[in-house]
UniProtKB/TrEMBL annotation:
Residues 42-100 form the Chemokine interleukin-8-like domain. GO terms for cellular component: extracellular space. The keyword Transport does not apply. Keywords: Cytokine, Signal. This is Chemokine interleukin-8-like domain-containing protein. It comes from Fundulus heteroclitus (Killifish). One of its GO terms (biological process) is immune response. Residues 1-24 form the signal peptide. It comes from the Eukaryota. InterPro entries: Chemokine_IL8-like_dom (IPR001811), Interleukin_8-like_sf (IPR036048). One of its GO terms (molecular function) is chemokine activity.
Length: 111
Protein backbone atom coordinates (compact mmCIF):
# COMPACT_ATOMS: atom_id res chain seq x y z
CA UNK A 1 0.00 0.00 0.00
CA UNK A 2 1.39 3.43 -0.88
CA UNK A 3 1.94 6.14 1.71
CA UNK A 4 -0.95 8.16 0.26
CA UNK A 5 -3.18 5.11 0.77
CA UNK A 6 -2.04 4.89 4.41
CA UNK A 7 -2.97 8.52 4.96
CA UNK A 8 -6.43 7.96 3.49
CA UNK A 9 -7.03 5.02 5.81
CA UNK A 10 -5.78 7.04 8.79
CA UNK A 11 -8.09 9.95 7.95
CA UNK A 12 -11.07 7.63 7.52
CA UNK A 13 -10.34 5.92 10.85
CA UNK A 14 -9.99 9.27 12.65
CA UNK A 15 -13.28 10.47 11.17
CA UNK A 16 -15.10 7.29 12.22
CA UNK A 17 -13.70 7.53 15.76
CA UNK A 18 -14.78 11.15 16.00
CA UNK A 19 -18.36 10.33 14.97
CA UNK A 20 -18.54 7.35 17.33
CA UNK A 21 -17.47 9.60 20.20
CA UNK A 22 -20.15 12.18 19.38
CA UNK A 23 -22.89 9.53 19.10
CA UNK A 24 -22.09 8.21 22.56
CA UNK A 25 -23.19 11.41 24.32
CA UNK A 26 -26.72 11.52 25.75
CA UNK A 27 -29.03 14.25 24.56
CA UNK A 28 -31.12 14.43 27.71
CA UNK A 29 -30.08 11.55 29.93
CA UNK A 30 -29.67 11.56 33.67
CA UNK A 31 -27.29 14.52 33.78
CA UNK A 32 -28.07 17.98 35.10
CA UNK A 33 -27.37 19.56 31.71
CA UNK A 34 -30.18 21.28 29.86
CA UNK A 35 -31.59 19.59 26.79
CA UNK A 36 -30.39 21.68 23.87
CA UNK A 37 -30.52 19.47 20.76
CA UNK A 38 -33.60 18.82 18.69
CA UNK A 39 -37.20 19.85 19.36
CA UNK A 40 -38.43 20.54 22.87
CA UNK A 41 -40.63 17.88 24.45
CA UNK A 42 -44.32 18.51 25.03
CA UNK A 43 -44.73 20.65 28.12
CA UNK A 44 -47.16 22.93 29.89
CA UNK A 45 -47.29 26.50 28.64
CA UNK A 46 -50.17 27.44 30.99
CA UNK A 47 -51.65 25.97 34.17
CA UNK A 48 -55.04 25.72 35.80
CA UNK A 49 -56.01 25.65 39.49
CA UNK A 50 -59.08 23.51 38.67
CA UNK A 51 -59.43 20.20 40.50
CA UNK A 52 -58.83 16.98 38.58
CA UNK A 53 -61.73 14.62 39.29
CA UNK A 54 -60.47 11.64 37.32
CA UNK A 55 -58.04 9.03 38.70
CA UNK A 56 -54.41 9.89 38.02
CA UNK A 57 -52.05 7.18 36.78
CA UNK A 58 -48.84 9.24 36.59
CA UNK A 59 -47.49 12.60 37.63
CA UNK A 60 -44.57 14.81 36.60
CA UNK A 61 -43.22 18.06 37.93
CA UNK A 62 -42.14 20.52 35.28
CA UNK A 63 -39.61 22.91 36.75
CA UNK A 64 -39.26 26.40 35.27
CA UNK A 65 -36.86 26.71 32.33
CA UNK A 66 -35.91 23.03 32.24
CA UNK A 67 -36.43 23.16 28.49
CA UNK A 68 -36.21 26.11 26.09
CA UNK A 69 -39.95 26.64 25.67
CA UNK A 70 -41.11 25.35 29.05
CA UNK A 71 -40.85 28.50 31.14
CA UNK A 72 -43.35 27.78 33.92
CA UNK A 73 -43.58 25.58 37.00
CA UNK A 74 -46.36 23.02 36.69
CA UNK A 75 -47.52 19.60 37.85
CA UNK A 76 -48.54 17.38 34.97
CA UNK A 77 -51.18 14.78 35.73
CA UNK A 78 -51.89 11.94 33.30
CA UNK A 79 -55.25 10.32 33.98
CA UNK A 80 -56.38 6.74 33.40
CA UNK A 81 -58.11 7.94 30.21
CA UNK A 82 -54.77 9.44 29.02
CA UNK A 83 -55.90 13.04 29.48
CA UNK A 84 -53.09 15.46 30.38
CA UNK A 85 -53.67 18.27 32.87
CA UNK A 86 -51.28 21.11 33.67
CA UNK A 87 -51.86 21.96 37.31
CA UNK A 88 -50.91 25.23 38.98
CA UNK A 89 -48.37 24.42 41.74
CA UNK A 90 -50.15 26.96 43.98
CA UNK A 91 -53.56 25.25 43.66
CA UNK A 92 -55.02 24.92 47.16
CA UNK A 93 -56.00 21.27 46.68
CA UNK A 94 -52.66 20.10 45.23
CA UNK A 95 -50.77 19.17 48.46
CA UNK A 96 -53.54 16.82 49.63
CA UNK A 97 -53.82 15.26 46.16
CA UNK A 98 -50.05 14.67 46.05
CA UNK A 99 -50.28 12.96 49.46
CA UNK A 100 -53.09 10.70 48.22
CA UNK A 101 -51.10 9.83 45.10
CA UNK A 102 -48.01 9.05 47.19
CA UNK A 103 -50.11 6.71 49.35
CA UNK A 104 -50.95 4.84 46.12
CA UNK A 105 -47.26 4.71 45.17
CA UNK A 106 -47.47 7.49 42.58
CA UNK A 107 -44.85 10.21 42.90
CA UNK A 108 -44.24 13.13 40.58
CA UNK A 109 -41.08 12.57 38.57
CA UNK A 110 -39.17 15.81 38.02
CA UNK A 111 -38.65 16.67 34.35
Amino acid sequence: MSSSGNWRVAIICATVLLFLHVQGHQKNGMSDELYTDGPDPDCCKTTSPARIKEHVKSCYEQRPNTFRNCKIHSYIFITVSNQTYCVDPDASWLPSRLEKLAARGITCEVM
